[in-house]
Design a protein that fits this description.
Strand order of the largest sheet of chain A: 1-3-4-5
Low-confidence stretches of chain A: none
Low-confidence stretches of chain B: 239-256
Mean pLDDT of chain B: 84
Order of helices and strands of chain B: HEEEEEEHEEEE
Largest sheet of chain B: 8 strands, antiparallel
Largest sheet of chain A: 4 strands, antiparallel
Number of strands of chain B: 10
Strand content of chain B: 25-35%
Number of helices of chain B: 2
Structural class of chain B: alpha+beta
Distance between the termini of chain A: 94 Å
Radius of gyration of chain A: 26 Å
Largest interface: A-B, 58 and 60 residues
Mean pLDDT of chain A: 81
Oligomer: heterodimer
Helix content of chain A: 40-55%
Order of helices and strands of chain A: HEHEEEE
Strand content of chain A: 15-25%
Number of domains of chain B: 1
Chain lengths: 153, 256
Amino acid sequence: MVKSNRGISLIESLVCIVIIGIGFIAIMQLSAFTINSMDRATEKNKLNYLSEMVMEDMIGDPDNASKYGSFSETCGYANKGGSNLYDKMKDKWRNKLSEKNYIKVNNKDKKPSCKTGDTKKTFVNVGTNNTTGRVNFLTGTGKRKKYLGVVVK
Amino acid sequence: MKNKNSGFTLAEVLVAIVIGIISIAAAFSSYGYFNKSYKSVSQKAAINNSAREALSIITKDLRNAGYIDINYSGSDKDTKLIGLTKNYLDNKFDKLIIWYTTSPTERVQIEYSPKKYVNNKYQGTNTNRMYLSRKSVFGSITRDSEFVPNISDFQIVFRNKEGAELTDVGDTSTVARANMKKVHTVEIYLTIESSKEVHAKQKSFVIKNDLNSLSFSDKYHRETFFVSVHTRNLAKHVALSEQTGTSIGQTSTYNK
C-alpha cells in the first residue's frame, strides 16, 4: 500500500490564518459597534427627555402655544434674548440642545453632540378645535429622527 | 508495506511554533478586549437604565406635586405643596420635597436628596460617593430607599411663570409658602457615574449643571440627564377659553 502524506503547505496555512484573522477583525468591530450603540442609546434617552421638555413648556403656556412653534436650530446656537416666557423657554431649549453643556471630557467629547444636518424643529398647529404641538429632532447627521406630538389645548 | 516517514524539517516546526504563538497571543488579547468592552457596555447600560427609571418616577411625582383632592380637609391644605433646599449636602447638592394627596384623607410626602454612602460595596476607599435617596412618608409608613446608586450631581431649579428662578420655596416661612404656588417649571439635572472604573486612563471631567461646576479626574464614566417638567397643580395658566379636543391627525397636519 502506497500512502502519500502531503498535508498542507506553509503557503496554504498562512492564507488560512489571514482569512481567520479577517474574521477576527470583524468580530472585534462588532464589539466596538456595541459600545457605540450603547452611547447612541444614552444620547437618544437624553434627547427623549429634551423633547419632553419642549412639550412640557408648550403645555405650560397653552395660550401662547403658537409662539413656541417654528423653532429651527442647527448646530450654531445663539441665545436670542427677550422678556416673554416663550422667549426664555426657547433660549432654554437652545441651551439644553447645544453641545457645550453637560459633561466635558478633557474639554472635548461634549454631549449631546451635534453634527451637520442635526436640525431641531418645533411646529405648532392652531386649529379650530385644538392646538397641537410637535417636535422633530434630527441627530446623527440627520439620520436618526425623534418625533413627539401632543394636543396642547 | 512501504511507508515513507519523512517528518517535519526544523524550519517547518519553527514556523509552526511562531504561528501558534501569534494565534494564542491574539486570542489572549481579544479576550482582554472583549472583557473590557463588556465591562464598559454593561456599566453604560446600567447608567442609562437607572436614569430612565429614576427620571420617569421623578417626573411623575413632579406632575402630581401640589395636587389637593377636592375633598381633602387637612389643616395643612395649602402649606405642603412643593419644597426645595438649595445647597443641602456639601454646600453643592439640592434636595426636593413634593407633597400630593392620594385620597380625600391622605397625603404623601416624597423627598429626593443626595446622600453619602456608608460602608457600601461601591464606596471602596472613596468616602465621597453618593446615591440619590427617595424617602416617602405616607401616613405612619416611612420608606427610605437607595433610589439611584452612584450619582455625581443632583441640581434642581424652580422657575415661575416669568421664567425667573425661585429659590426660597417650601414649608419653612411665609414667603416660601407663598412661593410654592408660583412654581411653574421644575428643571432637574441628574449626573450618574458608573459603579466601577470604566476608562483605561484617568480622564478630566468638568460637569456644569446649572450654576454648580464639578471637576473630576478619574476613570469613572458619567452621564448627565436633564428633565424639565411643568408643575400642573401649582402655577396654572389662566385659560382664555375652554375648548374640546379632537383626535390628533384628523384635523391637524401632525406627522405629515
